[in-house]
Prior knowledge:
Elements: E1 6-9, H1 19-34, E2 38-41, H2 53-66, E3 72-73, H3 89-101, E4 105-108, H4 112-124, H5 140-149, E5 153-156, E6 162-167, E7 171-176, E8 184-186, H6 194-204, E9 209-213, H7 220-230, E10 236-240, E11 243-244, H8 260-265, H9 270-278, H10 293-299, E12 310-311, H11 314-327, H12 330-337, H13 348-352, H14 354-366, H15 377-381, H16 394-401, H17 405-418, H18 426-440, H19 444-456, H20 464-471, H21 473-496
Helix pairs in contact: 1-10, 6-7, 9-11, 12-14, 16-19, 17-18, 17-19, 17-21, 18-20, 19-21
This protein binds glutamic acid.
Glutamic acid binds at residues 10-12, 44, 198, 212, 216.
Amino acid sequence: MTEEVRVRFAPAPTGHLHIGNIRTCLFNWLFARRYNGKVILRIEDTDVARSLDEACDTIVDDLRWIGLDWDEGYAVGGRYGPYRQSERLDLYRKYAEELISRGNAYFCFCTPEELEEERKAFLAKGRMPRYSGKCRNLTGDDVARLSLERTPVVRFRVPQDTVVLDDMIKGEISFDSSGIGDFVIMRSDGFPMYNFAVVVDDAEMKVTHIIRGDEHISNTPRQIMLYEALGFPVPKFGHVAMILGTDKTKLSKRHGATSLSYYREAGYLPEAIVNCLALLGWTPGDTREIMSLQQVAAEFGLDRVSKSPSVFDPKKLDWFNSQYIRACNPDRLLDMALPYLGGLGISEDVSAHGEGRERLKKIVVSVQDSITNLSEIPKEIRFFFGDIVEAYDESAKKWIEGPTAQPALDGFIEVFSNSCDTGFGVEEIQAGLKTVIGSVGVGARKVLMPIRAALTGRTKGPELHVIMEILGRERSIKRAFAALQEARGNHDGATSL
Ligand code: GLU
């Protein structure tokens, strides 16, 4: 590409970004990075009743967290600012006046009631409703007179034409403008309508490529006509097919969580989310799935973006997330896990450094391969804390009450109490467990399961020797004793009946 590529993120400040607009931002970002272009962040807040700074900051925070940066725009500045539409009203007014003076736009004084009547009349005739053009030919005198009564809107005078969109993803699409009535570009309150503001801004900010969801495709002929009327070069458009839920209907809240904030709070990693979303509509052309943002950016192109919708499956995101969690280095994993561990009573001091941190790291690493998100960690590691196991779950209880619990726990206590002078590292523990298995003589599983149940209160979890090493000798034996008593109690109870 010879000209500098300039793309934009153009979210409205209506809350956290959701899966759909992150994917749009991502594709723009990938396209810009692939072609050494620039990314602009513009806040589209003219439709929003009250646009709060807080809402804009939410967008900035979401984008930064997910790892998509921008070169110009809101919060970073640049030569084409301000980057919030509500601060650019003079500019829209200026261009609207220009269009009016050239006869490409005109004032319209129709009331909502009149427009509603027109609409009904069109429908009654079985035609698509559109503006009739009633105010198209008002004279200067008419305008002056009507202006005393009410504030007009500004409408664009739609030329009779065929508009051709050469879409970078969908190919060529022709629109007959006769189906498009003269549309409002400026409201009576001085705010621009979306189609107008977006054209003025994209032109002023020298945006060269507009990549967005295909729900905007019906806006595009309107925008192309505005570019032409304003004498601006028309940028290239690429409309990405929509995202569906697993039931093949348009992704929405009905499908469960679609907001970034949900996934962020639940402990999904930003790189897992962007990896998953990159493959929602784009393919590397082979079977690779795990790809970093940089890898995708090096290969990204709209030629491999699908024309048809793609399905967002939260289970697939779980898979990506678990892969990224597994690949995490222990320190990062611990740092990411810390905010979730509040309920475990770990003091910040302990977790931040020193021996406490090392132990905590081991604990978190012990469940690294079995979790799909970080918020699952506390329930997976709770048993490591405290001296004894607070409660046995149903399956653990069965093993502790089972026939092999007593010999297994007896053997366990004997072997590990008698080996006090040897270490309690993984190798010694494994050797000790082997001895226990040998001495009970009922097979490994029937010995190890009651021991696992005794030490953790559960029947699933990290490998037993890993658990024991973290718990330490004293606590492991203590827990085995407690379970043995439980087993004996049950057993005695059963025989005395
Ligand atoms: N603010 C619009 C949206 O969020 C941007 C549309 C566009 O990219 O032109 O849908």
